[in-house]
Amino acid sequence: MRKTDSFHAHHSPMGAHASFTLGMFGSNGGMALEKGKPAEQSVFIGYRSDSGVTKQFPFYKELVNEADRFSLDENSQGVKTISFEESQIQRSYDWAIDKFSAPGIDFSIITPFFEISDPAIENKEALKKASCPSIFGQITIRNDSNEDWEGFFAIQGDNPWTPLSSRNDLKGMISRDELGFASDDPDVSEFIDFGIETALSKEHKTPNFLLGPIGGISFKVAAGTSKTVRIALGFFKSGNVTINKEAKYWYTNYFDSIETVLSFALEGFNEYLDSALDSNQKLKSSGLSLDQQFLIAHSTRSYYGSTQWLSEKNKARWIVNEGEYLMINTLDLTIDMAFFELEYNPWTLRNVLEQFANEYSYVDQVFSPDCNDEMHEGGISFCHDMGVANHFSPNQYSCYECAGIDRKCFSYMTYEELTNWVICSGLYYSKTSDQDFLNTNASLFSACLNSLLNRDNPNPELRNGLMGFDSSRTLGGGEITTYDSLDHSLGQARNNVYLAGKTWASYLTLELLFNALGKSDLAENALTSAKLTASTLSSSFDDSLGFIPAVLEDGNQSAIIPAIEALIYPYMMGQKGYLDSDGPFSEYLAMLKRHTEYVLKKGVCLYEDGGWKLSSSADNSWMSKICLNQFIVHEIFGINYGGELEADNAHVEWQVNGSKSQACSDQFASGKPIGSLYYPRIVTSILWLKAKSKAFNNKVKSEELAKT
Amino acid sequence: MRKTDSFHAHHSPMGAHASFTLGMFGSNGGMALEKGKPAEQSVFIGYRSDSGVTKQFPFYKELVNEADRFSLDENSQGVKTISFEESQIQRSYDWAIDKFSAPGIDFSIITPFFEISDPAIENKEALKKASCPSIFGQITIRNDSNEDWEGFFAIQGDNPWTPLSSRNDLKGMISRDELGFASDDPDVSEFIDFGIETALSKEHKTPNFLLGPIGGISFKVAAGTSKTVRIALGFFKSGNVTINKEAKYWYTNYFDSIETVLSFALEGFNEYLDSALDSNQKLKSSGLSLDQQFLIAHSTRSYYGSTQWLSEKNKARWIVNEGEYLMINTLDLTIDMAFFELEYNPWTLRNVLEQFANEYSYVDQVFSPDCNDEMHEGGISFCHDMGVANHFSPNQYSCYECAGIDRKCFSYMTYEELTNWVICSGLYYSKTSDQDFLNTNASLFSACLNSLLNRDNPNPELRNGLMGFDSSRTLGGGEITTYDSLDHSLGQARNNVYLAGKTWASYLTLELLFNALGKSDLAENALTSAKLTASTLSSSFDDSLGFIPAVLEDGNQSAIIPAIEALIYPYMMGQKGYLDSDGPFSEYLAMLKRHTEYVLKKGVCLYEDGGWKLSSSADNSWMSKICLNQFIVHEIFGINYGGELEADNAHVEWQVNGSKSQACSDQFASGKPIGSLYYPRIVTSILWLKAKSKAFNNKVKSEELAKT
Asked: What's the pLDDT band for B699 if we cut at 50, 70, 90?
């Protein structure tokens, strides 16, 4: 159970790269588009009594009187504005509704999410509903006093407000034609002013005072009555929004302005609300613990906040931005978020894979670290990403990867991205049985197999199933893995047992794909390679250490949890025979289970708070990967090590206390977020809903666990 | 002479609402569009020796290593980066070239400005040249050492860079397709990186590293040689840029991208440079003191930084944004900037006047403060402004004026804006003899006369020539003047002698316009009214005080310099007979001269530093108005009070020390800028170039002054 209700969360439509970020008390937040961190608006939600006492939620930092920029005037006297204390506020944080309650007032933020139907299949109503760039709010004020109150919802931003009533029959505020909020309640009135008190104490509200930084709506709540007002919070960007390639938001196929978005959203309020309630119910009845439910809800919100559904020459281009970094479709995140997307809309995964295949792939040569000026045939691989902050990189290049760096941040991830693309293809195909995808990419799968093999060793005689050669793109440097900010235990690509796991899974994926294509020779070749990888790894267990060291060179002695990470892939692709303790990989599985049982202890791969530490030698643990590896430990290995509840509790604490100002974050050092803030990747937690055992809530007995 | 070279200045194209703001050492600045304050970029200009020592200008705040957001890595060792000390830097700040010199390097920022031809008259080449949204830089590096150097120009911004070479045959960096810099020198190369040292020490530069925050160009300067590189710094916004009305930048009629802007600018480099040199020469040979030259150059830069030349349905819409406040065409600034615009491009003034007449005028009623529920016929007036930050207000409303405020900031300026529109029309007509303007607005001039008279008193019997009634738009409040942040001495409109001066000038303006229209009855009516105003004012001189009090009611005893402000208008309109000490206003002029001689002393309307204090009762003095009133004191009255040099020196100090972080600012309290920062209005200083006596440099003998 979380120890505080004061933490930011994304509240986002699907695919609009937009968020109404709110929830940390005494902090700014609010509405922003295409931003890698919370907005810096002050949000005012509360009520003012006729006698001049204003009570509101503390959704703002210290207040600055913007009027002082124009004229230094004496402050008003006798005004009383009260922020609710944290102790007066209850927050219920469900999957699609985030509700704050305080004396006299409830405020809910409703963020429906659901399957996005494939845009290639004409279904205008469904696509319009899914792409509508709006979320919802609902304010209920219960006036149990003897005087009349005036409820309000208002935002202080950096840009001027325009009253919505000048555009259509709604009331509300819009700014730059890009964002705004609206109510269709006829009893609501609009105001723009320097302050809530200034606005509401006036005889005449000033909705044309565009100079005022605070735009809002207000409504009377007579003594002894209650009133509920529904609002839509919408976003809109027209025209081309990307640089170096031209694309617009998909929703512009249906909406031509912020006001049409707000109208449509309010008309569909009930339907959207029902959808949100359905999601809430699904999670509540999942059998997962409250901590697990929290982490799923929190990560889902941050995932959608980073999504960007574009239209390019009338075809969809799906993008997930990389949280605070805003990198476009980082491929090593795609693979982690694939589980979530396959659950809701598998077409987005295919869409991204095709963008990589068609625009962001390249062919290189490889070299041995022992002889870095002798080049050998390499093969196809895929870029780390496609650009940053709406700026597309030139084709065949990521914005991230730089030459000349030896196994440090910003070097190439050629090998890992190759495995990521291959495995994602397998996840997609095994979920959808999409024959068109299979056939279209048949020759590319062969090229991937060839590329994997060459990166082991161009000489087939010398292969051991692990990556041994680096890409010529590094210009003599050394490749890294997605764990770019960790030490070599997870950061170095060559001979890394984490990456070797992905190699193994890639070969198994290719076996599956080649079999589906009827190419049994290639399938057999791939399976043979997987066995070689597993064999090398199995024999690398170090009995004196009690685990398999992270990097099979230079006497590395780090213990890492993600040695097991790749087991998820055959599991998800239905290749469960390969996870059978009596199957062809029995030795490999037994070795990894032994490894896991050793490392899951404090001082090795557990922090003192019980949270998981991915590497024994690096104080930098990634929540997305923890969720993924938890599933493997509990659901695939059936290990119940006794610290599950403590771990989840620690991870919740990392998020709500550690990362309270940045919504859901990924990288933590001893519970403090140090990077990958405001991040989409943590939706690996969606896997937990698939856990047959619901093992992590620790309520299932170990006897039951042993059976899985 | 200014005591420091460390201060920000706008460096802007004409009409692009854009600036490359630079010059305060140890501070951020750089390129921004449509912003009411300096950009927050770090700008790196310098050279690096082959042995790894980098020397650069201090155009940045403390440096943050953005790479740390991705991975906490050990810092590089042995790197040496040196910022030039202030004592090593010389700055020559001419009208159109701002040049910084330090050991081994010169950097000039070239901001040509010149007449903008009337867009209504087809002259594509001239209009394209004038609207091209670019300024220029020139770096010269003199390598007198024994090792090779690499010169660089680079910017660290908030948005990703794209290498320009991916777009055309120039080298440089562009961001969001909205701003960038370029060189056409074939020896220049591009880089993007986390730091200058990181970039230049690499064997392979990384121009595709879009994740890097610093984009730049560099060039080799061999030992013992010199090299000069010319760059263009361009801005570009495509499509509709305004809200609530649709307009695009005028330059989009000729340019379709940032890269076409940069190409055109570099092709015209020599021609633009010649224009800048001409401006420099004109100011240098003006006979004005160095302090005066500085204030003219500084204010000119901030004026152009606020200009925004738009195109709406193929017709020009000229906007000057109100500095930090970004209000659109504030009419009480228009009148002060009219002198500058009439010198360079009178059509911009007509354009603004017509926008007010057609969209931002209204008809009200008036009431007496003694009886604020009895309404009388009012008349036409004009809004304070047209909106803010590209958001247009609804027609007939400003973004600024609010009802229900009694003589405080944000109340209505109905009366003053009426005088401003009338006087601007007279200034425009007397400069241009534009008969079309005269005829088009003939009936509006009559309405203005009627409106002025009604605001004195609806009952002709009771008129005294001053404003006595307030607008119904205030809903029972009280009007203010442009001096909204001062006390009632200048802030209250009713019975204010500053505003009464403008009333007098308005009547004289109308006389001129009606005579031009052949409406001699109305002309005579107007002149009679002017005489009534002058007579009332003349008789209000308070012998016991020694000056005319600022407000002719409630026993006000403030002394204000701007009692004389309106004398500038008949002077500029060629109505010099009315300024003749033996003419029809001899008594009024003598009274004002006596007033002026009294107030221009320390403790009354001079600060201890000799700077001018507009009101004896308010510590808030406006530089724009000081420049204007200085001209009147010296050039019209011929007063040489002996403190001229000290005053100009103080005013320079207010700007370069007081407002060093905000370029040219307007409102100062005891030399500290307290509002109206980054402001266009101070171009009233252009008047000094018209001074026949060049009186203010105090070199002309007092005998000569007496003759004028």
From this structure: very low
Of the residues A218, A249, A281, which one is the last residue of a structural domain? A281
The CATH number linked to A388 is 1.50.10.10
- Same domain for A539 and A508: yes
**B69–chain A nearest CA distance, Å:** 6
Q: Which domain holds residue A207?
A: 18-64+81-281
Asked if A73's CB is within 8 angstroms of B211's CB, the reply is no
pLDDT digits (tens, 9 = 90+) for A93-136: 999 999 999 999 999 999 999 999 999 998 999 999 999 999 99
CA angle centred on B131, ends B127 and B135, rounded to 5°: 135
**Residues of chain B found within 8 Å of residue A409, distances taken between Cβ atoms:** 67, 70-71, 73
Give me the residue from A209, A391, A485 closest to B402, CB to CB: A209
**Taking the C-alpha atoms of B87, B89, B93 and B98 in order, what is their torsion angle to the nearest 10 degrees?**
-160
> How remote is the C-alpha of A170 from its chain's centroid?
33
Tell me, what's the pLDDT at A207? 87
**Statement to judge: residues B232 and B307 lie in one domain:** no
pLDDT, position B702: 43
Looking at the predicted structure, is the pLDDT value of residue B122 above 50? yes
If asked whether residues B427 and B481 sit together in one domain, one would say: yes
How far A241 CA sits from the closest chain B CA (Å)? 9
Predicted TM-score of the model (pTM): 0.93
* Residue B179 and residue B256 in one domain: yes
Calculate the CA B155 to chain-centre distance: 26
pLDDT the model gives residue B708: 39
Question: Which residue stretches of A67-212 are H helix?
Answer: 124-131, 196-201
Q: Which residues of B touch A407 (CB under 8 A)?
A: none
Check whether residue A269 and residue A295 sit in a common domain.
Answer: no
What's the pLDDT tens digit per position in B258-273?
A: 999 999 999 999 999 9
> Is residue A487 situated within a structural domain?
yes
A 631-670 → B contacts, CB under 8 A: none
Boundary of a domain, candidates A263, A281, A299:
A281
pLDDT of residue B160: 96
Residues sharing a CB contact under 8 Å with residue B617, sequence separation 6 or more, in sequence order = B487, B489, B550, B557, B558, B559
Give the closest of B70, B327, B674 to A72, CB-based.
Answer: B674
Q: Scanning every residue of chain A, which has its alpha carbon at the shortest distance from the alpha carbon of B324?
A: A69
State mean pLDDT over B658-672: 96
For residues B58 and B557, what is the distance between their CA atoms, to the nearest angstrom?
49
Query: In terms of domains, do A538 and A477 share one?
Result: yes
Q: Is residue A233 part of a domain?
A: yes
Residues of chain A found within 8 Å of residue B258, distances taken between Cβ atoms: none
